[in-house]
Amino acid sequence: MKIQPRKFLLAAVCAAFLGTAFAAPDARIASLAAKEKPALLDTLKELVSIESGSRDLDGLEKISDLIAAKFKALGGEVELIDPSAEAYRMEDTPEKIGRVVCATFKGTGTKKIMLIAHMDTVYTVGMLNKQQFRIDGDKAYGLGISDDKQGVAVITHTVAMLQALKFKEYGTLTVLINGDEEISSPGSRALLTRLGGEHDAVMSFEGASIKDDKLSLATAGIASVTLNVTGKASHAGSAPELGVNALYELSHQILQMRDLSDPATGLKMNWTISKSGSNRNVIPASATAGADVRVLKVADYDRIEQQVNERVKKQLIPEAKVELKFERRRPPLEATAASIAFAKHAQAIYKDELGRPLGADDKAAGGGTDAAFASLKTKAPVVERFGLQGFGAHSADAEYVLIDSIEPRLYLATRMVMDISRGKTGN
After folding, report:
1. Span 331-345, mean pLDDT?
2. Lower CB density within 10 Å: C or N end of the chain?
């Protein structure tokens, strides 16, 4: 007879002492989660030890090969996809985009389940030399470890647990790991949207916060506005009247578009960067500015884009050429009835079997997510933050995950896949 891992047993004792309802965790899954914990840490070390910035094609090739090999070893049918050809081209989109790892596992059931995470980071080549993977107490440190190499590791070892359990009651289990999330997923967004529409549930493995252990049902959508003004240079002292001041026109445009935020709907538009001119004594012939846009509903994109396109027509200097570009960088993830029900099922597992609270926030917060692309063409549940609890994403020296969150998150992910397959989540 296998003994339950100590922390799960302790949770059961505490629950009994407090007089709360508590169903003991599945001993097989709990035991496997404990067994996979050191293996997951080894995987994290492997992943973190490969630099994989979104524009580092060599690093992305190396890490995608590693991830592909792991899923092949687990019995998956693995495809390495170059998403460059169908990329949504934004101002900062590179010509070549890192590959997507897509692994498929066929089962005996009917339900289609997709697990997603990303392998790219915001860090540049060479930073690994200053911060290697390390463990300090209950924290495992490394560049990109929280965002989102832990997600890749949790998915890998969830699949390993399902294989160890000989669980095949799903119809198709799809794993998708992309390498362009940190640059707004220009290449993988179409694939995420298409596959999201073909599955009965999508679990996304961005990390949870160290402060609030919770799932996320909604995230903000992100867009950008770029204004480019072309004027005419002239001597600012002797012949300013012969010039066309691009800075004046840019300032006018920014001021007339400063009030487009709508607190009632959560829509935000803020001008954040600007640049003009070359010399103090020259009337500026060019000027540019950028604004950050956040929305909570996909429909709000249409509204704000229409508003800026109407406002930009009102010029201060008719001779200036004004060009506006509105880019939808990432859609919002909107909470749905299906996602809420799905999250409630996960909360019940955490509370009833592990004795742990699990939040499920339907209020958008933080950055965007690839889960939003997966949700665009489906009414099925799409829920974010099934990954480990962590801290310090995008920081150069403080990014870590909590080691104590490994077992409960592996347990939860495995149980959710099993219950989705068996139709127990209401989907």
Report:
1. 97
2. N
> With contact defined as beta carbons under 8 Å apart, do 178 and 99 qualify?
no
User: How far is residue 327's CA from residue 174's CA, in Å, rounded to a whole number?
Assistant: 30
Tell me the mean pLDDT in the region 146-169.
98
Average pLDDT of the residues in 151-163: 98
Average pLDDT estimate for 336-354:
97
Active-site entry in 26, 56, 181, 200: 181
Contacting residues for 211 by C-beta, under 8 A, at least 6 apart: none
Helical H segments across 94-245, by residue range: 150-164, 189-198
Q: Do the Cβ atoms of 99 and 81 come closer than 8 Å?
A: yes
Please indicate whether residue 120 is annotated as part of the active site. yes
Residues whose CB falls within 8 Å of the CB of residue 17, separated by 6 or more in sequence, listed in order: none
Q: Are strands 382-383 and 201-204 parallel, antiparallel or unpaired?
A: parallel
Terminal C-alpha separation, the chain: 34
Task: Give the pLDDT score at 395.
Answer: 85
Catalytic residue among 36, 51, 56, 120: 120
82 is catalytic: no
pLDDT for 18: 38
Candidates 110, 111, 168, 158; CA nearest to 381 is 111
Instruction: Tell me how far apart the alpha carbons of residues 204 and 321 are, in angstroms, rounded to a whole number.
Output: 44
DSSP summary character for residue 145: I
Percentage of the chain lying above the pLDDT 90 cut: 89
- Using the predicted structure, report yes or no on whether residue 20 has a pLDDT greater than 80: no
Buried b / exposed e over 167-187, threshold 16 CB at 10 Å, is: bebbbbbbbbbbbbbbbbbbb
Alpha helices in 165-221 (DSSP H): 189-198
Average pLDDT value for residue range 272-288: 97
Sheet holding 100-106, edge to edge: 77-81, 100-106, 172-178, 112-118, 201-204, 382-383
Structural contact between residues 205 and 374, judged by C-beta atoms closer than 8 angstroms? no
DSSP 273-321: EEEE-S-TTB--SEEEEEEEEEESSTHHHHHHHHHHHHHTT--S-TTSE
Token digits of residue 330: 């990432």
